[in-house]
Specification:
13 helices; disordered N terminus; globular; EamA_dom; mainly alpha; single chain
Length: 302
């Protein structure tokens, strides 16, 4: 009977494909989150989003019956959950107080920060290709955002902080999950529980939350955020970070503003200039360059 190889060995392109899909759904999340926030406050939206995610992932907690899996998963759940809580608070409050173009530019700074965070936290010196691709992606994001029109406000500051936190949490996830028997879906559920309970606690300290809205638009946007932008995206990120480098993950998900721009044009009816499209093209090209197949040298030449 032939030996069974892990999924990522049989399909080595799978982590990269999952990350590009993550970038696609995350790109669409900005507009949907802004619409949902018209009906409900930030803490309530986050608590509902991640509470539903945890409920949907309750069956995955059966994986924690194994002692080794339970120990590794629980050790990663709390710090990564709190890290993601900080990211989503900054992003959601930031999106509510800034333009989509500024948000796309500032969150893309994690492309530049991740190689250095990986160097600082994991001791992995970034390659020249990674640094070059990060620089090109940042320039592309600058063009995509409208170049010289960028003006910073409080919302922009929160998006900048979210970019810094993204870089750090990406590396922390790799450190806590790589080469360890972590149950990916169970970890995603526990992270969601940490975020939900934390948001409810913060909301109770501010006087509680209003009743849930009944508008279909709110629930449609919320379910999309739960199923695709949270459930699928968290699973894909945790899976990819166990089988890839943090810099590679950041570069692939760095095409997020491109998909965000496409969503704004096709769904929201916004228009983009030639410079915007050029910036988006540069970001996609940089991501493809970073993950291109490398030709291996013969052993004698190596």
């Amino acid at each position: 009977m032939p030996a069974q190889h892990p999924l990522h060995q049989r399909y080595p392109f799978l982590p990269d494909l999952l990350l590009l899909l993550v970038a696609m759904v995350w790109g669409s999340s900005y507009g949907l989150a802004k619409q949902a926030l018209l009906f409900y406050p930030v803490l309530g939206l986050l608590a509902l989003r991640f509470g539903l995610t945890f409920i949907l992932l309750l069956p995955a907690q059966r994986a924690l019956a194994d002692a080794a899996v339970r120990r590794a998963t629980l050790q990663a759940a709390l710090p990564l959950g709190l890290g993601l809580l900080a990211i989503f608070l900054c992003e959601t409050y930031g999106v509510a107080h800034t333009s989509a173009a500024n948000a796309a530019f500032l969150i893309s700074l994690c492309l530049v920060l991740t190689p250095f965070a990986e160097w600082l936290l994991l001791g992995q010196i970034p390659s020249c290709d990674a640094l070059l691709a990060a620089a090109v992606s940042l320039f592309g994001a600058w063009l995509l955002s409208g170049a010289a029109q960028l003006q910073l406000n409080a919302g922009d500051g929160l998006m900048l902080l979210a970019a810094v936190l993204r870089a750090a949490v990406t590396c922390l996830t790799r450190r806590l999950t790589a080469d360890k028997p972590v149950a990916t879906l169970a970890l995603t559920g526990l992270q969601s529980l940490v975020i939900c309970l934390s948001c409810l606690l913060l909301a109770s300290m501010q006087g509680g939350l209003p009743p849930l809205p009944t508008a279909l638009a709110f629930w449609g946007n919320t379910l999309y955020l739960v199923l695709f932008c949270t459930l699928f995206a968290f699973f894909a990120m945790n899976y990819a970070l166990r089988h890839s480098s943090a810099t590679r993950v950041a570069l692939l998900t760095g095409s997020e503003p491109v998909f965000g721009a496409a969503f704004a044009v096709l769904w929201l009816g916004e228009s983009l200039s030639v410079a915007n499209w050029l910036g988006g093209g540069l970001m996609v090209a940089a991501s493809m360059w970073a993950v291109r197949p490398r030709r291996r040298l013969p052993l004698a030449r190596a």
